[in-house]
Design goal:
The chain starts with a helix and ends in a 5-residue tail after the last helix. The chain is an all-alpha fold and about 35 residues long. It has one helix at about 5-30. It comes from Brevibacterium sandarakinum. This is Methionine and alanine importer, small subunit.
């Protein structure tokens, strides 16, 4: 794999896990009140 491919893969992983982590933190701070 070229350097650009590795960089793009890292960015994609960080985006996915960053979004997942942000969602979990948000749900812990604001649980659904249903």
């Amino acid at each position: 794999m070229g350097t650009s491919a590795i960089v793009m893969m890292i960015i994609a992983i960080v985006t996915v896990w960053g979004g997942l982590g942000a969602a979990i933190v948000h749900l812990r701070k604001h649980p659904d009140e249903e």
